Fold this protein.
Amino acid sequence: MGVWEITVKDLRLILKDRGALYTLLALPVVFIAILGMSTGQLMTTHEVSKLLKIGVVIESTEPVAEDVYQSLSAIGGIKTVRIKDQQEARLWLQDGRSSVIVILGKDFDQKVDELALRDIFNMEHGKLSHGVSALDVQVQSGMEFVGVSELVEYVVLSAVLRVVAPQVARHSTLLRRTIDRMMDEEDESSDALAAILPPPPSAVKAGPSIIYQTLVPAFMVMFAFFLINIMASSFINERKLGTLRRLQCSPISPVQLLWGKTLPFLFVSILQSLILFASGKLMFGMSWGSYPLMLLPVIAMTSVSATGLGLLLATIVRTESQVASYATFLVIVLAGISGCYMPRAWLPVFMQNVSLATPHAWALIAYQELLTHERPQLSLVVECCGMLGAFGVVSFAIGCLRFRRREYSQ
């Protein structure tokens, strides 16, 4: 019996064990499906996930206030709703129907008329130094956005400026004459000014939600290392049935034996990752990044690392209770340290450095680079793959040494 025969035998055993297949393949898909239902994004086909709900109260009667509302509505990732008055808006904010409320006051048009170009282009020292409040605009955030209220105000200010800046430009005779010389029609003057300003919100296309670009790979890495539990249990069952001893007596080296025992789980782990990425695409519309083919070596090296660690654990444990306690401890602790439960960027710098001692962290770094950056650093991805491969090879080598000492010395 050679390596391939052992691999085929173990693959058949894994396929017959429906509980193990459910844990490795179906459970991760069910988990991220629940995640999708809890966020309301299951089976979404929208390019823009409207996560920020903004209620808008317009007390001004001038068209410019309506233009601001349309400018806000055009921003990707925002859902705007007209609200009758301030009292109703506060009720929407309290009961969660709206995450943010924006109130365009009665003096909004007057404040806009009082602006000069220097207030637009030198906001640090002009009338806009205090933000949108200088234009009689109020921005109130709900509890979930209190920590980023300044960012929300900046988004509102950007939408306001897209509408207000051309209005203010028309007040400047010098600028108007300059633009009229460049353009044949007066309406095109605003386009010339728009070339100076940032792109309009409607021109910025929001890609797939960054939530799923981060969470799906994180849980995928965590579930990849669930494999070590199944792998260690397989060795325990082989010992109990006596088949491991019979394999040791066959004309095959210990390394070949372990290769045959490890390859089936490597194939299953790769299949698990591919299924999870496909599920993320179908259920969340998540992107596979600018270089989708580069995901394959990361998937392969993560699986190598997981199976290597699984083999090492299999040579340490001797009973089913040890498998349950050791494997569960490793899966939970390593996932927590590395940043599978929350984005790595949220971890303190000290914990980010500590997490580099785990293969999970290197896999997460590679996935983050490929899935959340338009131009990923491929050299960093290659480095991460190298580290994952090193974790797997070292774990496999230590496992082989332990297996020889413990199994062949008996």
